[in-house]
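Follow-up to my earlier ticket, as requested here are the two runs.
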Amino acid sequence: MIMEQINEIKRKYKDSIIQFLKFGIVGGINTIVSYAITNIGFYVFHLHPQICNAVAFAITVFISFILNSQFVFTQSQEEKPPFLKALFKVYVSYSITGLFLMGILLYVEESIFGIPHYIATLANLIVTIPINFILNKFWAYKTK
């Protein structure tokens, strides 16, 4: 019974599941790039951690936009939203999930509940990644 339900879900949502997995791969690539940029900025150029984080955010969101446009949310030329409009929406969606929502969750988890930062950050990915995927799929890359 349960396996039948799982198979039905897989059949019904196969394309979205594949998109979500590709979205995760792009996210993994960006995590590595962000980590490298942040640490190079901090340890090599001796920049303030917030500056390093802001630079990494700006660069990796752009990389994410390019990779997601080409490999995850593929559309025909006629269906694609205008480049700058879609790019702006991607920055907004990542700002909502990566900066605003993550910031609120971290504050509550660390300050109120005393959860260690490294645990809270990982736990928040369970919330922020699916929300970001939905924002990208149904808003940022929405067809005309």
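Run two:
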Amino acid sequence: MGQVPQNRVQYQEWFSFSDFIQAFGTEEKCLAALENARWPNGFLCPQCGAAESFGVIHDGRRKRYQCKSCRALHLKNC
């Protein structure tokens, strides 16, 4: 059999599986990376643009921010 083709997304020589596990191996690490990708300069409400929140609100397993200005709730991971 021939070699299985790999695209650039599937295989990146500079980012090994062990690097991936180190960076995103726990739920906390994964959520922190998602939060940093969404809000690299801190929370910014997509609804009103305010930069202040009441912090993280735990609703079962979901963790959300609540905007101090418009009170909108935003999931950390989407």
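The only thing I checked on run two: The chain has a mean pLDDT of 78. Let me know what else you need.
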